Amino acid sequence: MVSNLLAGLxxxxxxxxxxxxxxxxxxxxxxCSQLVVERVDPIVNPGxxxxxxxxxxxxxxxxxxxxxxxxxxxxxxxxCTSCKMVEDFSNYWTASIYFxxxxxxxxxxxxxxxxxxxxxxxxxxxxxxxxxxxxxxxxSNKKTTVFSPGFRMIAGDPNTRTKxxxxxxxCHRCLSKSERITGGSGAPCDRSDTAEFPSKPCPxxxxxxxxxxxxxxxxxxxxxxxxxHVAYAPGNSSLAGDKCPASHPVRxxxxxxxxxxxxxxxANPDYYKNGKQPLVYSFGDTTGYGAHGDxxxxxxxxxxxxxxxxxxxxxxxxxxxxxxxQSGKDLIACTKEQQAKEDVDTNRCL
Length: 350
Fold this sequence. Notes:
Protein name: DUF1996 domain-containing protein
Helix content: 10-25%
Number of domains: 1
Strand content: 15-25%
InterPro entries: DUF1996
Keywords: Signal
Signal peptide: 1-19
Organism: Schizothecium vesticola
């Protein structure tokens, strides 16, 4: 049976959920425009210029090479955010995807594109990421405790090259031309998605989903591997219900990313012959199994907790009156110069 959370996300991603949204839903969903694209990773490789592979970063412009929690407070030190929610100075980042030409072996970075809204229009953003914060739709405990300052975590593993057992936490959806704005129907990481790169042309783009853990040990804002302080809830889906394991008893908002890659220019069927496909992640992964994401908390003055408490009443999906929203023009204008300066559109980043 599909869980209530999955059903709600199914309705959203089918883009026919206005009636449900009008009553309220149990997730926030908003767009973040591109802040910067560069080889920097202050969680896994703090202080390194350059980090081993390229990332696309969105969120508060206080983002830097170290993001040392002892010296930086994103809400206080950011002058702007590239996210729709004004009080969200968190940073969110994922790897880039390149097209490797089967003809001459050259590389071109696949551009990102905006995601769709419930009303059939595109989110106001340039490239970037669509961010979700989710809580259980049902159960005896819908309470979620938001992250503490300095909190950070990762989902997925760039070193993975085979399909992992258990529920998918990262996945790819191949979109037809008609699905360009809708993003396709169905819940994330269901049977319409694959852990690996699609094996056929995707003229409407590829939607990559990254699902983070939903349970916390209640003590540590980080851990040496940036994973051990959090956990996925038990069950057959990475989209959690209201239960958490005893080792990680605190239910936190479940963060999820959707990243839309515009593969329309690279949808030539000749590129997908003899079991081959032309896409490669910026860390050299041609399988797609190494898809991953990084998260660094930076919401201002308890605003995220207010929003999570208001979900299901007057706060829903792309609109939440307890939060301040900014215009697409303003969030798109929030950008940052590269700290690791290089041309990111060529194979020099691989």
